[in-house]
Amino acid sequence: MTWASTIAGSITTPNQSSRYGRKITGWIIHHNAALGGAGVLEMMRTGSKQVSANYQVMQDGDVWGVVPRENRSWSASNADWDAASLTFEIANDSLAPGWTISDRAYERVARTIAEDARWAGIPINRQTVRGHREGSALGDGGSYSTACPGGIDLDRLVGLAQKFSGSSLAGGDPSSIEEIPMPALIRHPNGSIGFVSDAGELDAISTLNEVESLKAVGLVGNWVQLPDKNIWDTLTARTARLRAQRATPGADVDEAAIVAGIAPLLIPAVVEALKGVGSGLTAEQVKAATEAAVRAVFADAAS
Ligand SMILES: [Zn+2]
Known about the structure:
Number of helices: 8
Low-confidence stretches: 167-182
Helix content: 25-40%
Strand content: 15-25%
Mean pLDDT: 79
Number of strands: 12
Strand order of the largest sheet: 1-5-4-7-3-8
Bound molecules: zinc ion
């Protein structure tokens, strides 16, 4: 059970599992969304919350070993993605709206990535080093919609890590990095607003405050008014299916919470469909029927 030689120290945590033979293919970068780092390290040590990372990095840049490289950390609510990744949680040195990390944190994390690239035999580039919110944008398992890793400049981190690793394993031509589409807010013709994550998942937005906070962390670049509801329906179906697949046994996901999260997306469509029939159902009945429909999607995805 090992870490890179760059660590300042290590702790033990109950929050870890086997990789079950899964080969490591890359890194996931998270920010703590908090200053310092000691609080997060202590939370991982005690297991008071079911989260962990292979490395917790303090605001001053010291890297702590938490889950040994050989094991899977619990970083992204996605067993598959975590099992194939080396994961970093990094304390911020400023809070909203910048959510930056310190220069020394960039340097220490980059050196750690450079060493672990040799250890795992994988290249360092923007396909292998991904921020949490980039989720499944590059096709390797997703996550829920999140602003994480805040203002961490992943291009800078990758550039530094490539420099430290020398050219032999750096891999990937920086000029060929794929642009990751900026997430957008979309508006259904009936007025509903949804946030489309990099991973292509749709989350319903219920208040203007949510819109403002997404703008504040730089997560939303533009508004798209849909000409008709086809795109909305497609995204809703895709999101439901992705979440249902993720909630199959062993994926560390709370199925009831996901049902509650998906149902509101479907309610406008169900209400609209019922209008034509003149069913006279109450909003509560529509909600119950919608949740039942979402459970059916889960059952379908699990089979
Ligand atoms: Zn994260």
